[in-house]
Amino acid sequence: MRADDVENAVTMMVGALGAVPDDGWSAPAGPLDWSCRDTVVHVADDLFGYAAQVAIAPPDDYPPFEIVVPDTVGTAGLLQVVATGGAMLAAAVRTAPGGVRGWHPYGDADAAGFAAMGVTEVLVHTHDITRTTDPAWTLPAAPCRGVLARLWPDVDAGDDPAGALLHHTGRASWRGVPAPARWRWHGTPR
User: Fold this and answer.
1) pLDDT value at residue 190
2) Which residues form the Mycothiol-dependent maleylpyruvate isomerase metal-binding domain (predicted)?
3) Domain range holding 100?
4) How many domains does the chain have?
5) Does residue 88 contact residue 51 with C-beta atoms inside 8 Å?
6) Does the N terminus or the C terminus of the chain have fewer Cβ atoms within 10 A?
7) pTM above 0.70, yes or no
8) pLDDT of the residue at 107
């Protein structure tokens, strides 16, 4: 995956969540125990964290920081933090030297792997939040297919890449198989 995939996914998330009222973030995000607010801040934190992994390629952990958004920040501010994290990850991916590897517990990844991880976080957590805020919203097929190809390369999604991604991230049954209770992607490039 590439930097523009990250930018497109973040643009999709901002569009899907832009109408959430400032006081509409406290409910649980779909099936998660986290609130919609905690979930969107988690996405931002992941985007910044993945950018750091690409930019400085630490060998054994994440840099010791966490994104904190004041409780008084509403929809526009929350989505601005996500957009900023997405821009940071896209810039890091775009400028990464060839062969860069950053640490991740699911396998040391290259820039394309961290881009795919960021897009996955954006996609599945937008899905989680919209289960509460806009249940008619659906995952777009193309980015789902892209992250599956990079992070779950043995999955044949056929004509249902969104269903496959939701299944492989523990959110839905797929092709008659219940959602896994535990799941992981494969960050290390093949």
Assistant:
1) 83
2) 13-129
3) 3-168
4) 1
5) yes
6) C
7) yes
8) 87
Q: How far apart are CA 108 and CA 101, in angstroms?
A: 6
Find the DSSP H helices in the chain.
3-17, 36-56, 75-95, 111-133, 141-151, 161-168
Q: Does residue 121 belong to any structural domain of this protein? A: yes
Q: What is the pLDDT of residues 23-64, one digit of tens each?
A: 999 999 999 999 999 999 999 999 999 999 999 988 888 899
Q: Express each pLDDT in 103-124 by its tens digit.
A: 999 889 999 999 999 999 999 9
Helix axes 36-56, 75-95, angle to 10 degrees: 20
- Structure tokens, 64: 């010791």
Residue count of the chain: 190
Question: Is 174 domain-assigned?
Answer: no
In a domain, 189, yes or no: no
Which residues, other chains included, contact 73 with Cβ-Cβ below 8 Å and sequence gap of 6+?
A: 81
8 Å CB contact between 52 and 89: no
CB 6 within 8 A of CB 115: yes
Residue 46 to residue 114: CA distance in whole angstroms: 10
CB atoms within 10 A of CB 182: 5
CATH number at residue 88: 1.20.120.450
